[in-house]
Amino acid sequence: MLKSNDNWDNYGRFRDFEVDAIVVDDNASYGILSSTIAEQLSIDTSDKIIEIKYIVNENCPPMEIRNDMGVRVYMETKKENKNLGSYPLCISVRDFNMELAINNESTSAGSSGSLNLLEFPSSPAIEEYQSEIITESTQTYIEEGQVYQDKQTVAAAMKNYSVMHKFQFRVKRSSHRSYWFICVAESCKWHFKATSINDSAMFKIRSFSRQHTCCLMDEIFIQRKRTATVLGSMVVPKYCDPKTVYTPKDIQTDMLSEHGLNLSYMQAWRAKEKALQFLRGNPCDSYNKLPKYFYILEKNYPCSVVKLKKAADDCFLYAFVTLCTSINGWQHCRPVIVVDGTFLKSAYRGIMLTASTMDAAGTIFPLAYAVVDSENDASWKWFFEKFKEAYGERPSMCVVSDRHESILKATSVVYPELAHYSCMWHIWTNIRSKFKKGHLQLHELYFATARSYTLDEFNERMLKIEEVDLRVKSYLYDIGYHRWSRVHATVNRTFTMTSNIAESLNAVTKDARELPIFDLFEYMRTLLERWTKEKLSKAKGTFTYLGHKYNKELEDNSTLSQKLRVRASTDHIHTVLDGVKRYIVCLENKKCSCGQFQLDELPCAHALAALRHRNETYENYCSPYYTRKSLLLTYEMPVNPLPDEGKWDVPQHILDEVVKPPAGDKRQPERPHKERYKTFDEIKSKKYKVSCGNYGGEEHNKRTCKNAPKKK
Question: What is the DSSP secondary structure assignment for residue 513, as one 8-state letter?
Answer without folding.
Answer: G
